[in-house]
Known about the structure:
By secondary structure, the protein is α+β, with helices and mostly antiparallel strands.
Amino acid sequence: MTKKYFSRGKSKKRFEIFRDKCYKIWRSDGLKTEILKEKDVQIFNLIVENYLKIGNPISSGYIAQRSQRPVSSATVRNIMSKLEKHGYLLQPHTSSGRVPTDKGLRLYVNNLFGEVIYPDISINFTREAFHQKKGDFNSLLDRVSQILSEESDNLGFVLSPRISRINFYHIRLIKISEEKIMIILITTSKLVLTEIIETKSYFTQVELDQASRYINENFRGKNLLFVRDFILREIPAHKMRYEDILRKLITLLKFHLIEEERSSQIFIQGTSKLLGKSESIDMENLKLLFRGFEEKAKLAKLLSDVISLDRVKVLIGTELDIPDILDFSLILSHYGYDQQVLGSLGIIGPKRIPYRKIIPLVDCVAKKLSETISYS
């Protein structure tokens, strides 16, 4: 099994390991610091990992029995009190144990990013899993969302890229009606995308064929954003063979790119899997989440707003700032090629999601999808 690890690279860390074996956790307000000893962090991680498994408040006696190092229940209680004081743990009832808060789960996830993660299962996808429906780009993305759901036992999603950002091998423009044109785009890795766009300019099919021919002859391997910018620069300077057609084409691309920014297609699989986790999720909040799935455009907009350049980004509960999914965690990454982000993918699940398993899973799927769309 290949060992996978995750690092924050050269970005600012929210914690560091000092020579005195302490973790220094910087508050988000940047004004105060909290010192946790190595033993505190070990006990804290043990509490969180057992809570993620069983879902019940964790008692000091339970931790004392399972600690790899000898430790008394009294010592564990003192550490729990300290962690509770700092806001990492919560005691739901006076007679119960502790559970991690959203802030505590954030500390736990940050610690995972700072260590080698050994997944519970081997992550090894066959080429066929990603190439099964390679000719159709949307079918590929739908398949990837299914893989994410099946492997995580949670909800998997993939946000599709905007067609204007995808490098093409061949493009064809077809008139559907006076106000609608179909773009058929074959990517450099031979994936096929189709999209119907609205137009306020009148085109004949002959003009669209001429525009397609000009684009294919001059811009193969580029994307429509590049085509738009190039033509905008060149038309004022030169009399071009297809000048009138390209002026209308520019108007078409401008209008489409504005509309494109307002919407993204999202592929979702595994909603039924969340129904089986009623012990981890408030059912009213689950209903709100499913209502969001029915409004896919709204959900896609919310998720596209949190696209990050981090290899894997984890948002927990209140960090999401999305009222409908405050009881959930979002683990996402991006896919693309040539250092260009095309879209995002990930998993939505209860806050009790097994982060140690899900983080490398999302990272691996993102890299596999990037490889698939990058190479023939």
